[in-house]
Design goal:
It is found in: Cell membrane. It is a single chain. The protein contains 10 helices and no strands. It is an all-alpha fold. Helix 3 (97-130) runs antiparallel to helix 5 (141-162), helix 7 runs antiparallel to helix 8 and helix 9 (280-304) crosses helix 10. The chain is globular, with a radius of gyration of 23 Å. The model is unreliable at 1-5 and 233-239 (pLDDT under 50).
């Protein structure tokens, strides 16, 4: 490794075997640390509010909300592991090879679980909109909880197999001291790309295209019947509108997820193909964009869901500590 005079090493005492730090101004470094730290704190706090709300208030114990709970759990852990990305933002890893392997493993498990949960959310909305009469029979709390458990278990098992070499021998893929990378064979990379990105995205897009097509036709039908309906009919319309609103809200969540996810997997494709055009700053940006999605989800809930705003008020004002607060009306 050839060093310039003004290059700064991660481990100066190791000289040629140490990685070099990317050059950046002090102001840029400070702003980066403040921004990422703020996002990490906001992500963990907001998703903790979502977790407490859905877990505590019995009115929110619905199949759809259990899927949101799973997503909030994964987003909460994303906020926690952002600390390690902050450590790595200067291009140097000081926490050891074993910690690096554990960080990579947890990050990939969370990513797989998030993608799987997004697919489950799309399936839930598909059944609710396209087959509303049998939704309560097909989608029960027990089945949703089983699907969520299977999603997380599969993510753990899948990544355990995929990252087996990295877990068995931490640091085997690093080229210099201070680097934290995960590598594998080309076939495994392509398989992961398909199962973690191409397949789920294709399913998500197809299902939601169908959902919004049916939702649009139902909206037109409701407008045409809104002039003269019986009391029973008006209740039916209200139920349909609530399902449509949920579909739109979760559609926004899915769309934002895909926008934040695509650059990350494009980056993975470039690495898998052996590309070298992505520098450290670009890699850090796409990773942080993916993590930032976990902060956006609770903000979307706060904007669209009145129940989340009510729960937030109850939690912040400590009314949640009162007896029987779990029975409170938050809808």
């Amino acid at each position: 490794m050839t060093l310039e005079e003004d290059d700064e090493l991660c481990f100066p005492q190791l000289f040629n075997s140490s990685c070099t730090k990317p050059k950046r101004s002090e102001l840029e470094a400070v702003l980066t640390y403040i921004t990422l730290s703020s996002i990490s704190l906001l992500t963990t706090t907001l998703n903790m509010f979502v977790i407490i709300s859905i877990s505590h208030f019995k009115q929110l114990h619905t199949p759809t909300n259990f899927l949101l709970l799973s997503l909030a759990v994964s987003d909460f852990f994303v906020g926690l592991i952002m600390f390690f990305q902050i450590v790595l933002i200067d291009g140097c890893w000081f926490l050891g090879d074993a910690t690096c392997s554990a960080y990579q493993y947890v990050a990939y498990v969370i990513t797989s679980a998030s993608v799987g949960t997004m697919v489950l959310i799309c399936v839930d909305r598909y059944v609710a909109i396209c087959d509303p009469l049998r939704y309560s029979v097909k989608v029960t709390q027990g089945r949703v909880q089983a699907c969520v458990c299977l999603c997380w278990t599969s993510a753990v098992a899948y990544q355990s197999v995929l990252l087996r070499d990295n877990l068995d021998q931490p640091g085997r893929f690093i080229s210099c001291a201070g680097e934290c990378v995960n590598a594998g064979n080309y076939i495994a990379g392509l398989a992961d790309l398909f199962f973690s990105f191409v397949g789920p995205v294709a399913v998500t897009v197809v299902l939601y295209m169908r959902v919004f097509a049916v939702a649009a036709s139902q909206a037109r039908a409701m407008r045409s019947q809104a002039a003269a309906v019986s009391l029973q009919g008006s209740v039916t319309v209200t139920v349909k509108r609530s399902e449509l609103k949920a579909a739109v809200t979760l559609g926004v969540v899915v769309a934002v997820f895909l926008v934040c996810l695509c650059p990350y997997f494009i980056y993975i494709v470039i690495l898998t193909a052996g590309g070298t055009l992505v520098n450290a700053s670009s890699a850090a940006f796409v990773i942080c964009l993916f993590y930032f999605n976990s902060c956006l989800n609770p903000l979307i809930y706060a904007f669209f869901y009145r129940w989340f705003r009510k729960c937030l008020k109850v939690i912040v004002t400590l009314q949640i500590l009162q007896p029987d607060s779990s029975e409170a009306n938050v809808l």
